[in-house]
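Re: export button greyed out
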Amino acid sequence: MPTVLLLGATSDISVAIAKEFGAHGYSLQLAARNTEHLLPIQSDLQIRYNVDCTIHAFDALNYDSHQSFFNSLSVKPDVTVCVFGVMYEEEDAWNDWKLTHRMIDTNYTGAVSILNIVAKYYSAQKKGTIVGISSVAGERGRQSKLIYGSAKAAFSAYLAGLRNKLFKDNVHVVSVKPGFVYTKMTEELPLPKPLTAQPEEVAKAVFKAVEKKKNTIYTKWMWKYIMMIIKNVPEPVFKKMNI
Amino acid sequence: MKKEIANWGNYPVIESDEKSFSYTDELDKLVAQPKSYIARGNGRCYGDASLADNTISTLKYDKVLSFDTEKGLLEVQSGITLDQVLDIIVPKGWFLPVTPGTKYITVGGAIASDVHGKNHHVDGAFSHHVIEMDVLLASGETLTCSPTENTDLFEATCGGMGLTGVIERVIFDLKKIETSFIKQKQVKAENLEEILQLFDTYAHYTYSVAWIDCLKKGKNFGRSILILGEHAKKEDLDDKQKNDPLQLPKKKQITFPFNLPSWVLNTFTVKAFNFLYYGKNFKKEINNVVSYEPFFYPLDAILHWNRGYGKPGFIQYQFVLPLQAKQGLIDILNRISDEGIGSFLAVLKVFGKQESLISFPTEGYTLALDIPVRKGLFEFLDELDQIVLKYGGRLYMSKDARMKPEILKAGYPHLDRFKAIIKKFNPDFKFRSHQSDRLLLTKEKDSKVNGTAVVLPKMEAAVK
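Workaround output, generated via the alternate export path:
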C-alpha cells in the first residue's frame, strides 16, 4: 500500500486529508510540532480505516532539523502533503515584525526547506508526488491579506517552479488553492456559505488531484473564476479598491 | 462571532457565539475564559437545551481512542456522531447498545440527554452502557466518573443536559451482532386498547415501537402499527444478503430543500398522510428482513426533514405516564384529536423500569408528537402538561422548549438532589443554557444572574 506524509498534521484540513487517504487504504505518516495532539488522531485513523499510522515530531521553523526528520522516516512516503501554515491578523502583523516574519517563515521558508529535501529524494527515485496547500490569497497582492497573501504567492510560485523542474524526473507537484474553508482558523470570520468549503471537500479534491495528476486545483471550483476576474482588474483601478 | 443557531425543532432561534475545539487542552483554555457556556453537539435535541449566548461545539472533538473488538468496548471523544460510530463497529460485528431515532447525534449528547431507543424495556437507556467518562468541570479540573467512581457526578451527568460540565472521553459497551440486518415484524392494531395489548404480547421482542394515528376518533381511536425487530441471524438472510452479512447500508440521502410554507401542514393533510401510512400495511401482519438503516433511522434518509414544518419551527412534545395511568393516555389523545393538531409522526412506546437521578425514561407509556409552532399552541401544551402531571408523568427535557419550571419539579422526584450536585460541580453556573435558566436550574426565580435574563422569543414574531 502507498504511504502519504502529512506535514502539519494537526490542522482541520490535514485531518480531513488524512481521513480521505486512509479511507483509500494509504498508510499514514503524521508530522507536527505537537505530537501530543497527534495521538488521538493516530488512534482514530487506525481504528476507522485499519491502516498503519505513525507520528513524527516536525517543526517547520527548525530548518536544520528537516533533513534528519526526513532521514528518520523508515518508510519513505509516496505522496507528501505540505499543509502547515499560519494566518495572523494582518493589522497585528503590520505592527509587529515578529509576527510578519513568522508568517513568512512558516508559510514560505519552512515549506521550501522541507520540500526541497523531499523533492531531491523523489528526483533521485524518479517518482513521487508533492502536494502544497497554498491559498487563493496568493493570487494577487492586496491590503487585507498583505503578508499572508505575499507569503502564499511565493509558495505558489515555488510549487509551480518545482513542478516544472521535476517533470523530467517523473515527479508530480499539485498546487492546491483553497478559497474560504470552515476551520478553526476562520471560525471568527463571517464567511459566505456558497463560497466556503468544508475541510472534507478540500480533502476529496486533493485526493482526486493526486490520483489524476492535476497541476492546480481550486476549492471550491468557482474560486478559479473569481480569481480570474480579480487578477484581471487593471492595477490603476485595483490599487484604489478596498480589498 | 455571533451567529444564529437553533436545534432540530427550529424553535427558538437565538444568536450565539459558538467556539469549537479539536484537542483537550484547547477545551481547557476555552472553559478557563470568564464566560458561561453550554456544550453543544450536533444540535439534534429539539428545543433550547443546547442553546446559550456562548456555546462550545464538540463536533471537531470526534476521535476514536480505542476499540476492543473482543469485548465490544469503544472509547471515543464526545463529539463523534453515532453514524460515524456505526460505520466503524458494524463491519466488525458490533452495534450500538441503544440508539434513538436518528444517528446524527453525538455520544456526548446521547449521555447528556440519556437517550433511549426501541429496546428500552430490555436494555435501558444509553447511560446504562457507559462504563466510564471524563467530565471537565467549571473548576478546570477533569474528573473520571462511572457507576462506581465519583458516582454523584456520573448520575447527574447522565441526562443532566450538560449542566455538570463538558463530557470529554467516554467508554461504552456495544451489542454483539451476527448480521447488520433486522428481522422486522409489523402488526396493525385497530385501536388503543389493541395496541397496548400488543405491546404486552410482544414484550419479549428486543425492539418495539408503535406509530399511532392521533386524529382518528370513534372505534378506531388510537389505531396504530406496532413495529418490532430483532437483530437477524445469518440463517435469516437471503442469498444476496448472506454474501456480506455485516454490510453497511448504502449512503443515499435526499435533502429537504427549503422550509415548507406553514399552511401546508393542517388537519386535512395530516389525516391524509395517516390514512395512507396506515393503509400501506394492507395485511394485519408483515414480516421481513431489512437493513438496520430503515428500521432505526427512517427519517435520516431525508436531510433537513425538519424544514417540512416551515420557518416557525415545531415542538416535539414527549411525555411518559406510569403504566397504571392508561386513562391519562386516553385523555391526552382525546384532547389532541379534539384540537385537531395531530402530527405526522406520533410515536408510542412502553418503557421498562429505570432508576435514575434525572433521566427521562421511567416505566410506563411514552408518546412523542411533532406539532408545528402556531398561535395558541403553548397554551394548549400547558393544558396537556396538567394532564401529564395529574397522572404522575413527566416531560423529556431534550424535546422541551417551553415547559414551566413547576412542571419539571413535579415530574422529577430527585430534582433537588440534581440541583445540589450541579451546585457542587458547577457552583457559579458556568455551564448553563437557555433551557436551564428557563427551568430555574441555573437561576433563581425572577432574579437576574450575571445580568442575563432569558426572554423567550415572542410567538407572534415566530408565527407570521
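The beta strands of chain A are 3-7, 27-32, 53-57, 79-82, 129-133, 172-178, 180-181, 196-197, 216-219. The button fix ships in the next patch.
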